[in-house]
Amino acid sequence: MTYYIFTLVFFLFDYFILAMGLNIQYGITGILNFAYIGFVAVGAYVTGVAAMPANTVGQHYILGLGLPFPFNLLLGGFAAMGLSVLIALITLRRLRTDYLAIVLVSLSLVFYDFCNNYVSLFNGADGLYNVPEPFAKTLGLGSNNFIVFFACLTGVVSLIMWFVMSRVMRAPLGRTFRAVRDDAVTAAALGKNTFWMQMKAMMIGSFFAGIGGGLLIQFGGSFNPTAWLPAETFVVFAVLIVGGAGNNIGMFVGALLVETLLIHLPAFLPEIPGHPGLIEYIDTVIVGVVLMVMLWFRPQGIVPARLRKTASFGVDERLDEEAGELDRTTALAGVGTRAEATR
Amino acid sequence: MPALHTEGVTAGYGKTPIITDISVDAEVGRVTTIIGPNGAGKSTFAKALVGILKPMAGRILVNDVDVTRMPGHEIPRHGLAYVPQNDNVFKRMSVRENLEIGGFVHKGDSSARIAELFEIFPDLGKAHTKKAGLLSGGQQNLLAIARALMAKPSVIVLDEPTAGLSPAYTSVVWEQVARIATLNTAVVVVEQNVERALKHSDYVHIFVAGRDHVHGTAADISQLDLPSIFLGRSHAASTT
Protein backbone atom coordinates (compact mmCIF):
# COMPACT_ATOMS: atom_id res chain seq x y z
CA MET A 1 0.00 0.00 0.00
CA THR A 2 2.85 2.37 0.88
CA TYR A 3 4.41 1.61 -2.50
CA TYR A 4 1.20 2.54 -4.34
CA ILE A 5 0.60 5.73 -2.41
CA PHE A 6 4.13 7.05 -2.70
CA THR A 7 4.34 6.15 -6.37
CA LEU A 8 1.28 8.33 -6.87
CA VAL A 9 2.85 11.05 -4.73
CA PHE A 10 5.99 10.93 -6.85
CA PHE A 11 4.06 11.30 -10.10
CA LEU A 12 2.05 14.15 -8.61
CA PHE A 13 5.16 16.18 -7.78
CA ASP A 14 7.06 15.19 -10.91
CA TYR A 15 4.23 16.21 -13.23
CA PHE A 16 3.79 19.37 -11.19
CA ILE A 17 7.37 20.25 -12.20
CA LEU A 18 6.79 19.22 -15.82
CA ALA A 19 3.55 21.20 -16.03
CA MET A 20 5.21 24.32 -14.59
CA GLY A 21 7.84 24.07 -17.33
CA LEU A 22 5.23 23.79 -20.07
CA ASN A 23 3.21 26.53 -18.39
CA ILE A 24 6.00 29.09 -18.72
CA GLN A 25 6.37 28.15 -22.39
CA TYR A 26 2.74 27.82 -23.47
CA GLY A 27 0.55 29.19 -20.67
CA ILE A 28 2.64 32.32 -20.10
CA THR A 29 4.57 32.93 -23.34
CA GLY A 30 2.32 31.22 -25.87
CA ILE A 31 4.92 28.89 -27.41
CA LEU A 32 3.04 25.84 -28.60
CA ASN A 33 5.81 23.36 -27.74
CA PHE A 34 4.62 20.02 -29.06
CA ALA A 35 8.14 18.64 -28.58
CA TYR A 36 8.04 19.07 -24.82
CA ILE A 37 8.42 15.38 -24.05
CA GLY A 38 11.69 15.42 -26.04
CA PHE A 39 13.20 17.82 -23.49
CA VAL A 40 11.93 15.59 -20.69
CA ALA A 41 13.69 12.66 -22.37
CA VAL A 42 16.96 14.56 -22.73
CA GLY A 43 16.84 15.40 -19.04
CA ALA A 44 16.15 11.78 -18.16
CA TYR A 45 18.83 10.29 -20.37
CA VAL A 46 21.54 12.78 -19.42
CA THR A 47 20.72 12.45 -15.72
CA GLY A 48 20.98 8.67 -16.16
CA VAL A 49 24.25 8.56 -18.07
CA ALA A 50 25.75 11.18 -15.78
CA ALA A 51 25.03 8.96 -12.78
CA MET A 52 26.03 5.65 -14.35
CA PRO A 53 29.62 4.39 -14.39
CA ALA A 54 31.71 4.58 -17.54
CA ASN A 55 31.08 0.93 -18.43
CA THR A 56 28.07 -1.23 -17.75
CA VAL A 57 27.79 -4.73 -19.16
CA GLY A 58 25.19 -4.96 -21.92
CA GLN A 59 24.58 -1.22 -22.23
CA HIS A 60 26.02 1.39 -24.59
CA TYR A 61 25.85 5.05 -23.72
CA ILE A 62 27.81 8.29 -23.72
CA LEU A 63 29.32 10.11 -20.72
CA GLY A 64 29.17 7.56 -17.86
CA LEU A 65 30.43 10.14 -15.38
CA GLY A 66 29.33 8.47 -12.16
CA LEU A 67 28.19 11.83 -10.76
CA PRO A 68 26.32 11.86 -7.45
CA PHE A 69 22.82 13.25 -7.03
CA PRO A 70 21.91 16.14 -7.47
CA PHE A 71 24.79 17.05 -9.80
CA ASN A 72 23.67 14.52 -12.39
CA LEU A 73 20.12 15.90 -12.13
CA LEU A 74 21.30 19.46 -12.68
CA LEU A 75 23.34 18.29 -15.67
CA GLY A 76 20.15 16.75 -17.08
CA GLY A 77 18.30 20.02 -16.59
CA PHE A 78 21.03 22.04 -18.26
CA ALA A 79 21.28 19.55 -21.13
CA ALA A 80 17.56 20.01 -21.85
CA MET A 81 18.08 23.76 -21.63
CA GLY A 82 21.00 23.55 -24.07
CA LEU A 83 18.89 21.59 -26.54
CA SER A 84 16.16 24.21 -26.24
CA VAL A 85 18.61 26.93 -27.30
CA LEU A 86 19.44 24.96 -30.42
CA ILE A 87 15.78 24.24 -31.22
CA ALA A 88 14.80 27.86 -30.54
CA LEU A 89 17.49 29.18 -32.85
CA ILE A 90 16.15 26.94 -35.62
CA THR A 91 12.45 27.55 -35.07
CA LEU A 92 11.57 30.74 -33.19
CA ARG A 93 13.03 33.33 -35.54
CA ARG A 94 10.68 32.65 -38.40
CA LEU A 95 7.87 30.46 -37.07
CA ARG A 96 4.91 31.11 -34.82
CA THR A 97 1.70 29.46 -33.65
CA ASP A 98 0.53 26.42 -35.63
CA TYR A 99 3.57 26.37 -37.91
CA LEU A 100 5.94 26.39 -34.96
CA ALA A 101 3.96 23.55 -33.39
CA ILE A 102 4.17 21.45 -36.57
CA VAL A 103 7.93 21.89 -36.84
CA LEU A 104 8.42 21.14 -33.16
CA VAL A 105 6.42 17.94 -33.28
CA SER A 106 8.40 16.92 -36.38
CA LEU A 107 11.69 17.58 -34.61
CA SER A 108 10.43 15.56 -31.67
CA LEU A 109 9.74 12.60 -33.97
CA VAL A 110 13.19 12.90 -35.57
CA PHE A 111 14.83 13.02 -32.14
CA TYR A 112 12.76 10.04 -31.00
CA ASP A 113 13.82 7.92 -33.96
CA PHE A 114 17.42 9.00 -33.54
CA CYS A 115 17.53 7.95 -29.87
CA ASN A 116 15.65 4.75 -30.63
CA ASN A 117 18.05 3.65 -33.36
CA TYR A 118 21.44 5.14 -32.49
CA VAL A 119 22.41 2.63 -29.83
CA SER A 120 25.71 4.27 -28.82
CA LEU A 121 23.88 7.35 -27.53
CA PHE A 122 21.46 6.08 -24.87
CA ASN A 123 21.38 2.31 -25.53
CA GLY A 124 18.77 2.58 -28.32
CA ALA A 125 15.39 0.90 -27.96
CA ASP A 126 16.45 -0.92 -24.78
CA GLY A 127 17.13 2.37 -23.09
CA LEU A 128 19.00 2.81 -19.83
CA TYR A 129 18.49 0.56 -16.84
CA ASN A 130 20.11 -0.13 -13.48
CA VAL A 131 20.60 3.58 -13.00
CA PRO A 132 22.01 4.08 -9.46
CA GLU A 133 19.37 5.10 -6.92
CA PRO A 134 20.41 8.33 -5.19
CA PHE A 135 21.29 7.98 -1.49
CA ALA A 136 19.98 4.39 -1.42
CA LYS A 137 23.32 2.89 -0.38
CA THR A 138 24.30 5.76 1.89
CA LEU A 139 21.04 5.63 3.78
CA GLY A 140 20.68 1.87 3.51
CA LEU A 141 17.25 2.09 1.89
CA GLY A 142 15.36 -0.95 0.64
CA SER A 143 13.27 -0.63 -2.53
CA ASN A 144 10.04 0.31 -0.70
CA ASN A 145 11.83 2.75 1.57
CA PHE A 146 13.58 4.27 -1.40
CA ILE A 147 10.25 5.00 -3.07
CA VAL A 148 8.99 6.80 0.05
CA PHE A 149 12.25 8.69 0.38
CA PHE A 150 12.43 9.69 -3.28
CA ALA A 151 8.77 10.73 -3.46
CA CYS A 152 9.40 13.07 -0.52
CA LEU A 153 12.64 14.33 -2.10
CA THR A 154 10.75 15.04 -5.33
CA GLY A 155 8.21 16.97 -3.25
CA VAL A 156 10.99 19.14 -1.84
CA VAL A 157 12.48 19.69 -5.30
CA SER A 158 9.05 20.63 -6.68
CA LEU A 159 8.53 23.15 -3.88
CA ILE A 160 11.87 24.79 -4.62
CA MET A 161 11.04 24.91 -8.32
CA TRP A 162 7.57 26.26 -7.60
CA PHE A 163 9.15 29.06 -5.52
CA VAL A 164 11.58 29.92 -8.33
CA MET A 165 8.86 29.81 -10.98
CA SER A 166 6.54 32.01 -8.91
CA ARG A 167 9.29 34.62 -8.65
CA VAL A 168 9.86 34.52 -12.40
CA MET A 169 6.16 34.88 -13.14
CA ARG A 170 5.71 37.84 -10.78
CA ALA A 171 8.82 39.62 -12.06
CA PRO A 172 8.73 42.05 -15.01
CA LEU A 173 10.14 39.17 -17.06
CA GLY A 174 6.95 37.18 -16.50
CA ARG A 175 4.84 40.16 -17.51
CA THR A 176 6.88 40.53 -20.69
CA PHE A 177 6.39 36.85 -21.46
CA ARG A 178 2.63 37.37 -21.21
CA ALA A 179 2.84 40.43 -23.45
CA VAL A 180 4.69 38.41 -26.09
CA ARG A 181 2.03 35.70 -25.80
CA ASP A 182 -0.83 38.16 -26.24
CA ASP A 183 0.68 40.06 -29.18
CA ALA A 184 4.28 39.72 -30.30
CA VAL A 185 4.07 42.62 -32.77
CA THR A 186 2.78 45.06 -30.18
CA ALA A 187 5.34 43.83 -27.66
CA ALA A 188 8.10 44.48 -30.19
CA ALA A 189 6.67 47.94 -30.84
CA LEU A 190 7.10 48.58 -27.11
CA GLY A 191 10.77 47.72 -27.31
CA LYS A 192 10.65 44.07 -26.34
CA ASN A 193 12.98 41.68 -28.14
CA THR A 194 10.34 39.03 -28.70
CA PHE A 195 12.75 36.40 -30.03
CA TRP A 196 14.99 36.70 -26.99
CA MET A 197 11.98 36.60 -24.67
CA GLN A 198 10.69 33.41 -26.29
CA MET A 199 14.19 31.97 -26.11
CA LYS A 200 14.29 32.68 -22.36
CA ALA A 201 10.91 31.02 -21.86
CA MET A 202 12.08 27.98 -23.84
CA MET A 203 15.24 27.75 -21.73
CA ILE A 204 13.46 28.04 -18.38
CA GLY A 205 10.69 25.64 -19.37
CA SER A 206 13.13 23.12 -20.81
CA PHE A 207 15.22 23.20 -17.65
CA PHE A 208 12.08 22.25 -15.73
CA ALA A 209 11.40 19.50 -18.30
CA GLY A 210 14.94 18.20 -17.86
CA ILE A 211 14.68 18.15 -14.08
CA GLY A 212 11.29 16.39 -14.28
CA GLY A 213 12.76 13.83 -16.67
CA GLY A 214 15.81 13.37 -14.48
CA LEU A 215 13.64 12.65 -11.47
CA LEU A 216 11.68 10.12 -13.54
CA ILE A 217 14.76 8.04 -14.37
CA GLN A 218 16.09 8.29 -10.82
CA PHE A 219 12.77 7.10 -9.43
CA GLY A 220 12.31 4.14 -11.74
CA GLY A 221 15.97 3.35 -12.35
CA SER A 222 15.32 2.94 -16.07
CA PHE A 223 14.16 4.94 -19.08
CA ASN A 224 13.58 3.87 -22.67
CA PRO A 225 11.77 5.24 -25.76
CA THR A 226 8.41 3.75 -24.76
CA ALA A 227 8.43 6.15 -21.80
CA TRP A 228 8.48 9.22 -24.00
CA LEU A 229 6.36 8.52 -27.04
CA PRO A 230 5.64 11.89 -28.71
CA ALA A 231 1.98 11.60 -27.63
CA GLU A 232 3.14 11.91 -24.00
CA THR A 233 3.52 15.65 -24.65
CA PHE A 234 -0.26 15.88 -24.78
CA VAL A 235 -0.60 14.37 -21.31
CA VAL A 236 1.39 17.35 -19.98
CA PHE A 237 -0.81 19.64 -22.09
CA ALA A 238 -3.87 17.97 -20.52
CA VAL A 239 -2.46 18.67 -17.05
CA LEU A 240 -1.97 22.30 -18.04
CA ILE A 241 -5.39 22.80 -19.63
CA VAL A 242 -7.33 21.04 -16.88
CA GLY A 243 -5.41 22.80 -14.11
CA GLY A 244 -5.55 26.25 -15.67
CA ALA A 245 -2.90 27.65 -18.01
CA GLY A 246 -0.96 30.53 -16.52
CA ASN A 247 -1.37 29.52 -12.88
CA ASN A 248 1.17 27.37 -10.99
CA ILE A 249 -1.36 26.23 -8.42
CA GLY A 250 -3.45 25.08 -11.38
CA MET A 251 -0.49 22.97 -12.49
CA PHE A 252 -0.58 21.16 -9.15
CA VAL A 253 -4.33 20.60 -9.41
CA GLY A 254 -3.95 19.41 -13.01
CA ALA A 255 -1.15 17.01 -12.04
CA LEU A 256 -3.31 15.66 -9.23
CA LEU A 257 -6.39 15.12 -11.38
CA VAL A 258 -4.94 14.06 -14.73
CA GLU A 259 -1.61 12.40 -14.04
CA THR A 260 -2.26 10.97 -10.59
CA LEU A 261 -5.97 10.16 -10.44
CA LEU A 262 -6.82 9.52 -14.11
CA ILE A 263 -3.61 7.98 -15.47
CA HIS A 264 -1.72 6.30 -12.61
CA LEU A 265 -4.39 5.46 -10.05
CA PRO A 266 -6.40 3.18 -12.42
CA ALA A 267 -3.28 1.04 -12.95
CA PHE A 268 -3.51 0.06 -9.28
CA LEU A 269 -7.21 -0.82 -9.39
CA PRO A 270 -8.29 -4.50 -9.60
CA GLU A 271 -9.04 -5.92 -13.05
CA ILE A 272 -12.60 -6.03 -14.34
CA PRO A 273 -13.47 -9.74 -14.72
CA GLY A 274 -13.48 -10.79 -18.39
CA HIS A 275 -11.75 -7.56 -19.51
CA PRO A 276 -8.06 -7.86 -18.69
CA GLY A 277 -6.12 -4.64 -19.26
CA LEU A 278 -9.25 -2.58 -19.84
CA ILE A 279 -8.73 -0.29 -16.86
CA GLU A 280 -5.12 0.30 -17.72
CA TYR A 281 -5.88 1.38 -21.27
CA ILE A 282 -9.11 3.27 -20.75
CA ASP A 283 -7.26 6.13 -19.00
CA THR A 284 -6.33 7.79 -22.30
CA VAL A 285 -9.97 7.83 -23.35
CA ILE A 286 -11.01 9.34 -20.04
CA VAL A 287 -8.31 12.02 -20.27
CA GLY A 288 -9.52 12.89 -23.79
CA VAL A 289 -13.10 13.21 -22.64
CA VAL A 290 -12.11 15.33 -19.62
CA LEU A 291 -10.04 17.56 -21.90
CA MET A 292 -12.96 18.14 -24.27
CA VAL A 293 -15.34 18.85 -21.42
CA MET A 294 -12.90 21.33 -19.89
CA LEU A 295 -12.25 23.13 -23.18
CA TRP A 296 -15.95 23.49 -23.77
CA PHE A 297 -17.25 24.38 -20.31
CA ARG A 298 -14.25 25.83 -18.49
CA PRO A 299 -11.43 26.69 -20.92
CA GLN A 300 -9.67 28.78 -18.31
CA GLY A 301 -9.09 25.58 -16.28
CA ILE A 302 -10.02 24.68 -12.72
CA VAL A 303 -7.72 27.32 -11.23
CA PRO A 304 -7.64 30.17 -13.75
CA ALA A 305 -4.80 32.63 -14.12
CA ARG A 306 -5.14 35.52 -11.73
CA LEU A 307 -4.64 39.17 -12.46
CA ARG A 308 -1.39 40.24 -10.88
CA LYS A 309 -1.46 42.22 -7.64
CA THR A 310 -0.99 45.92 -8.30
CA ALA A 311 1.44 47.49 -5.91
CA SER A 312 0.16 51.02 -5.55
CA PHE A 313 -3.52 50.23 -5.60
CA GLY A 314 -3.31 47.06 -3.47
CA VAL A 315 -5.88 45.31 -5.58
CA ASP A 316 -6.03 41.60 -6.26
CA GLU A 317 -9.25 41.38 -8.11
CA ARG A 318 -10.36 38.12 -9.64
CA LEU A 319 -12.80 38.49 -12.45
CA ASP A 320 -13.71 34.87 -12.86
CA GLU A 321 -16.98 35.31 -14.65
CA GLU A 322 -15.79 37.93 -17.11
CA ALA A 323 -12.36 36.39 -17.46
CA GLY A 324 -13.90 33.03 -18.21
CA GLU A 325 -15.89 34.57 -21.02
CA LEU A 326 -12.76 36.21 -22.42
CA ASP A 327 -10.77 33.00 -22.11
CA ARG A 328 -13.53 31.09 -23.84
CA THR A 329 -13.30 33.55 -26.73
CA THR A 330 -9.53 33.35 -26.88
CA ALA A 331 -9.46 29.58 -26.55
CA LEU A 332 -12.04 28.98 -29.24
CA ALA A 333 -11.05 31.70 -31.68
CA GLY A 334 -7.31 31.65 -31.03
CA VAL A 335 -7.27 35.37 -30.28
CA GLY A 336 -3.93 36.42 -28.94
CA THR A 337 -1.76 33.70 -30.32
CA ARG A 338 -3.02 34.41 -33.80
CA ALA A 339 -3.42 38.14 -33.53
CA GLU A 340 -0.32 38.81 -35.54
CA ALA A 341 -1.30 36.34 -38.23
CA THR A 342 -4.31 38.50 -39.01
CA ARG A 343 -2.14 41.52 -39.71
CA MET B 1 14.71 69.91 -36.55
CA PRO B 2 11.63 67.68 -36.87
CA ALA B 3 11.34 64.87 -34.30
CA LEU B 4 10.64 62.49 -37.20
CA HIS B 5 12.18 62.93 -40.61
CA THR B 6 11.88 60.50 -43.50
CA GLU B 7 13.62 60.87 -46.84
CA GLY B 8 12.56 58.99 -49.95
CA VAL B 9 11.33 55.92 -48.12
CA THR B 10 10.41 52.97 -50.35
CA ALA B 11 9.04 49.87 -48.64
CA GLY B 12 6.83 46.87 -49.26
CA TYR B 13 6.46 43.15 -48.88
CA GLY B 14 9.04 40.84 -50.44
CA LYS B 15 10.48 42.60 -53.44
CA THR B 16 7.29 44.47 -54.30
CA PRO B 17 7.28 48.09 -53.17
CA ILE B 18 3.96 49.32 -51.77
CA ILE B 19 5.10 52.87 -51.00
CA THR B 20 7.62 54.77 -53.07
CA ASP B 21 9.78 57.80 -52.29
CA ILE B 22 7.91 59.01 -49.23
CA SER B 23 9.29 62.03 -47.36
CA VAL B 24 7.44 63.14 -44.26
CA ASP B 25 8.42 65.42 -41.38
CA ALA B 26 6.65 65.47 -38.02
CA GLU B 27 7.34 68.19 -35.51
CA VAL B 28 6.76 68.30 -31.79
CA GLY B 29 3.44 69.90 -30.88
CA ARG B 30 1.90 69.15 -34.26
CA VAL B 31 -0.52 66.49 -35.50
CA THR B 32 0.60 65.20 -38.89
CA THR B 33 -1.97 63.00 -40.55
CA ILE B 34 -1.66 60.62 -43.46
CA ILE B 35 -4.87 59.98 -45.31
CA GLY B 36 -5.72 58.25 -48.56
CA PRO B 37 -7.90 55.61 -50.13
CA ASN B 38 -7.66 51.92 -49.25
CA GLY B 39 -4.44 50.35 -50.50
CA ALA B 40 -2.63 53.68 -50.68
CA GLY B 41 0.15 52.37 -48.41
CA LYS B 42 -0.63 54.35 -45.25
CA SER B 43 -0.25 51.42 -42.84
CA THR B 44 2.75 50.14 -44.78
CA PHE B 45 4.41 53.50 -44.18
CA ALA B 46 3.60 53.29 -40.46
CA LYS B 47 5.09 49.79 -40.30
CA ALA B 48 8.23 50.99 -42.06
CA LEU B 49 8.58 53.80 -39.54
CA VAL B 50 8.58 51.43 -36.58
CA GLY B 51 10.77 48.71 -38.06
CA ILE B 52 8.14 46.06 -38.78
CA LEU B 53 9.05 46.45 -42.46
CA LYS B 54 12.58 47.31 -43.52
CA PRO B 55 12.71 50.07 -46.17
CA MET B 56 14.16 49.13 -49.54
CA ALA B 57 15.41 52.69 -49.95
CA GLY B 58 15.45 55.97 -48.09
CA ARG B 59 16.17 57.04 -44.54
CA ILE B 60 14.19 57.37 -41.33
CA LEU B 61 15.51 59.66 -38.61
CA VAL B 62 14.08 59.96 -35.09
CA ASN B 63 15.50 62.90 -33.15
CA ASP B 64 18.29 62.97 -35.71
CA VAL B 65 19.21 59.30 -35.11
CA ASP B 66 19.08 57.05 -38.17
CA VAL B 67 16.79 54.13 -37.27
CA THR B 68 16.30 52.84 -40.82
CA ARG B 69 18.12 49.54 -40.32
CA MET B 70 17.55 49.22 -36.61
CA PRO B 71 15.69 46.16 -35.23
CA GLY B 72 12.10 47.12 -34.41
CA HIS B 73 12.49 46.54 -30.67
CA GLU B 74 15.36 49.06 -30.43
CA ILE B 75 13.55 51.95 -32.12
CA PRO B 76 11.32 52.88 -29.12
CA ARG B 77 14.45 53.61 -27.09
CA HIS B 78 15.13 56.50 -29.45
CA GLY B 79 11.79 58.11 -28.74
CA LEU B 80 9.36 56.64 -31.26
CA ALA B 81 6.22 54.90 -30.04
CA TYR B 82 3.75 52.99 -32.18
CA VAL B 83 0.10 52.13 -31.64
CA PRO B 84 -0.99 49.38 -34.05
CA GLN B 85 -4.42 49.22 -35.65
CA ASN B 86 -6.87 46.86 -33.85
CA ASP B 87 -5.85 44.10 -31.38
CA ASN B 88 -3.47 46.64 -29.93
CA VAL B 89 -3.70 45.79 -26.22
CA PHE B 90 -2.61 42.75 -24.25
CA LYS B 91 -6.09 41.40 -23.74
CA ARG B 92 -5.41 38.99 -20.90
CA MET B 93 -3.46 41.50 -18.84
CA SER B 94 -4.98 44.20 -16.65
CA VAL B 95 -5.16 47.83 -17.73
CA ARG B 96 -2.45 48.71 -15.24
CA GLU B 97 -0.17 45.90 -16.41
CA ASN B 98 -0.60 47.10 -19.98
CA LEU B 99 0.62 50.51 -18.88
CA GLU B 100 3.49 49.10 -16.82
CA ILE B 101 4.78 47.19 -19.79
CA GLY B 102 4.90 50.42 -21.79
CA GLY B 103 7.12 52.08 -19.20
CA PHE B 104 10.09 49.80 -19.67
CA VAL B 105 12.32 52.44 -21.24
CA HIS B 106 12.68 54.31 -17.97
CA LYS B 107 13.89 52.11 -15.13
CA GLY B 108 12.27 52.40 -11.73
CA ASP B 109 8.77 52.86 -10.40
CA SER B 110 6.23 53.70 -13.05
CA SER B 111 3.40 54.54 -10.63
CA ALA B 112 3.83 58.30 -10.96
CA ARG B 113 3.65 58.16 -14.76
CA ILE B 114 0.61 55.86 -14.59
CA ALA B 115 -1.12 58.31 -12.24
CA GLU B 116 -0.42 61.14 -14.73
CA LEU B 117 -1.94 59.12 -17.55
CA PHE B 118 -5.00 58.23 -15.48
CA GLU B 119 -5.60 61.96 -15.16
CA ILE B 120 -5.46 62.32 -18.93
CA PHE B 121 -7.52 59.16 -19.49
CA PRO B 122 -9.89 58.97 -16.50
CA ASP B 123 -11.83 56.02 -18.01
CA LEU B 124 -8.71 53.90 -17.77
CA GLY B 125 -8.17 54.90 -14.15
CA LYS B 126 -11.63 53.66 -13.27
CA ALA B 127 -10.97 50.32 -14.98
CA HIS B 128 -7.34 49.84 -13.97
CA THR B 129 -7.83 46.33 -12.53
CA LYS B 130 -9.92 45.04 -15.41
CA LYS B 131 -8.60 42.74 -18.06
CA ALA B 132 -7.87 44.89 -21.13
CA GLY B 133 -9.80 42.51 -23.36
CA LEU B 134 -12.98 43.37 -21.45
CA LEU B 135 -12.78 47.08 -22.33
CA SER B 136 -14.79 48.54 -25.20
CA GLY B 137 -13.04 49.02 -28.54
CA GLY B 138 -12.62 52.75 -27.93
CA GLN B 139 -11.26 52.23 -24.44
CA GLN B 140 -8.82 49.66 -25.80
CA ASN B 141 -7.55 52.20 -28.32
CA LEU B 142 -7.14 54.80 -25.59
CA LEU B 143 -5.30 52.25 -23.48
CA ALA B 144 -2.97 51.48 -26.38
CA ILE B 145 -2.29 55.21 -26.80
CA ALA B 146 -1.74 55.68 -23.06
CA ARG B 147 0.62 52.71 -23.01
CA ALA B 148 2.65 54.22 -25.83
CA LEU B 149 2.84 57.49 -23.86
CA MET B 150 4.27 55.71 -20.80
CA ALA B 151 7.78 56.05 -22.21
CA LYS B 152 7.28 59.80 -22.89
CA PRO B 153 8.06 59.44 -26.58
CA SER B 154 8.93 62.43 -28.74
CA VAL B 155 7.07 60.84 -31.69
CA ILE B 156 3.94 58.70 -31.51
CA VAL B 157 2.60 56.90 -34.59
CA LEU B 158 -1.08 55.95 -34.46
CA ASP B 159 -2.34 53.53 -37.08
CA GLU B 160 -6.06 54.22 -37.60
CA PRO B 161 -6.87 54.87 -33.93
CA THR B 162 -10.58 55.37 -34.67
CA ALA B 163 -11.12 52.32 -36.89
CA GLY B 164 -14.39 50.61 -36.01
CA LEU B 165 -15.38 53.12 -33.32
CA SER B 166 -18.71 54.84 -32.86
CA PRO B 167 -18.86 58.53 -33.91
CA ALA B 168 -19.04 59.56 -30.25
CA TYR B 169 -15.91 57.64 -29.31
CA THR B 170 -14.16 58.76 -32.49
CA SER B 171 -14.49 62.34 -31.21
CA VAL B 172 -13.11 61.33 -27.82
CA VAL B 173 -10.08 59.66 -29.41
CA TRP B 174 -9.36 62.63 -31.69
CA GLU B 175 -9.62 65.07 -28.77
CA GLN B 176 -7.04 62.99 -26.95
CA VAL B 177 -4.83 62.88 -30.04
CA ALA B 178 -4.86 66.68 -30.20
CA ARG B 179 -4.10 66.84 -26.50
CA ILE B 180 -1.13 64.47 -26.85
CA ALA B 181 0.47 66.90 -29.30
CA THR B 182 0.52 69.51 -26.54
CA LEU B 183 2.53 67.13 -24.34
CA ASN B 184 5.79 67.87 -26.16
CA THR B 185 5.14 65.08 -28.65
CA ALA B 186 5.00 64.87 -32.44
CA VAL B 187 1.89 62.93 -33.44
CA VAL B 188 1.64 61.02 -36.72
CA VAL B 189 -1.82 59.60 -37.43
CA VAL B 190 -2.75 57.22 -40.22
CA GLU B 191 -6.45 57.79 -40.80
CA GLN B 192 -9.31 56.87 -43.14
CA ASN B 193 -11.79 59.46 -41.92
CA VAL B 194 -10.89 62.54 -43.99
CA GLU B 195 -13.31 64.92 -42.33
CA ARG B 196 -12.05 64.17 -38.82
CA ALA B 197 -8.45 64.22 -39.94
CA LEU B 198 -8.73 67.65 -41.50
CA LYS B 199 -10.55 68.99 -38.47
CA HIS B 200 -7.94 67.91 -35.91
CA SER B 201 -4.65 67.91 -37.84
CA ASP B 202 -2.06 70.58 -38.40
CA TYR B 203 -0.47 69.04 -41.46
CA VAL B 204 -1.82 66.46 -43.87
CA HIS B 205 -0.30 64.10 -46.44
CA ILE B 206 -2.55 62.36 -48.96
CA PHE B 207 -1.19 59.05 -50.16
CA VAL B 208 -2.48 57.66 -53.44
CA ALA B 209 -1.22 54.41 -54.96
CA GLY B 210 1.83 54.29 -52.71
CA ARG B 211 2.97 57.85 -53.33
CA ASP B 212 2.72 61.10 -51.39
CA HIS B 213 0.25 62.63 -53.82
CA VAL B 214 -0.16 65.97 -52.10
CA HIS B 215 0.67 67.49 -48.73
CA GLY B 216 0.13 70.74 -46.93
CA THR B 217 -1.56 72.36 -43.97
CA ALA B 218 -4.99 71.04 -43.09
CA ALA B 219 -6.49 74.35 -44.14
CA ASP B 220 -4.84 74.19 -47.57
CA ILE B 221 -5.76 70.54 -48.12
CA SER B 222 -9.39 71.31 -47.25
CA GLN B 223 -9.56 73.54 -50.32
CA LEU B 224 -8.69 70.72 -52.73
CA ASP B 225 -11.10 68.52 -54.63
CA LEU B 226 -10.57 65.57 -52.32
CA PRO B 227 -13.14 63.20 -53.87
CA SER B 228 -11.33 63.46 -57.19
CA ILE B 229 -7.96 62.86 -55.57
CA PHE B 230 -9.29 59.83 -53.71
CA LEU B 231 -10.82 58.45 -56.89
CA GLY B 232 -7.57 59.00 -58.78
CA ARG B 233 -8.99 61.63 -61.13
CA SER B 234 -6.89 64.58 -59.97
CA HIS B 235 -3.15 65.17 -60.23
CA ALA B 236 -2.95 68.09 -57.82
CA ALA B 237 0.51 69.38 -57.12
CA SER B 238 1.87 69.79 -53.65
CA THR B 239 0.46 72.82 -51.88
CA THR B 240 3.76 73.45 -50.13
Question: What's a concise summary of this model?
Answer:
Chain A is mainly α.
List the helices and strands and how they pair.
The complex is a heterodimer of chains A (343) and B (240).
Chain A: H1 2-28, H2 36-51, H3 71-91, H4 97-117, H5 119-122, H6 136-139, H7 143-170, H8 172-182, H9 184-189, H10 194-220, H11 232-243, H12 248-264, H13 278-297, H14 320-333
Chain B: E1 4-13, E2 16-22, E3 25-26, E4 31-35, H1 42-49, E5 57-62, E6 65-66, E7 80-83, H2 95-102, H3 111-120, H4 122-126, H5 137-149, E8 155-159, H6 167-181, E9 186-190, H7 194-200, E10 203-208, E11 211-217, H8 218-222, H9 226-230
Helix pairs in contact in B: 2-5
Describe this structure as you would to a colleague:
The complex is a heterodimer of chains A (343) and B (240). By secondary structure, chain A is mostly helical. Chain A has one domain (2-342). Chain A has helices spanning 2-28, 36-51, 71-91, 97-117, 119-122, 136-139, 143-170, 172-182, 184-189, 194-220, 232-243, 248-264, 278-297, 320-333. In chain A, helix 2 (36-51) packs antiparallel against helix 3. The longest helix of chain A has 28 residues, at 143-170. The model of chain A is unreliable at 310-343 (pLDDT under 50). Chain B is an alpha/beta fold and 240 residues long. Chain B has a single domain (4-230), classed as 3-Layer(aba) Sandwich (Rossmann fold), CATH 3.40.50. A six-stranded mixed sheet of chain B has the order 7-8-9-4-10-11, with helices on both faces. In chain B, strands 1, 2, 3, 5 and 6 form a five-stranded antiparallel sheet that branches. The radius of gyration of chain B is 17 Å and the shape is globular. The A-B interface holds A 172, 175-176, 178-179, 181-183, 185-194, 246, 305, 307-308, 310-313, 315, 317, 319, 322-323, 326-327, 329-330, 335-336, 339, 342-343 and B 50-52, 71-77, 81-84, 87-94, 96-97, 100-102, 104-105, 111, 114, 128-131, 133-134, 144, 147-148, 151.
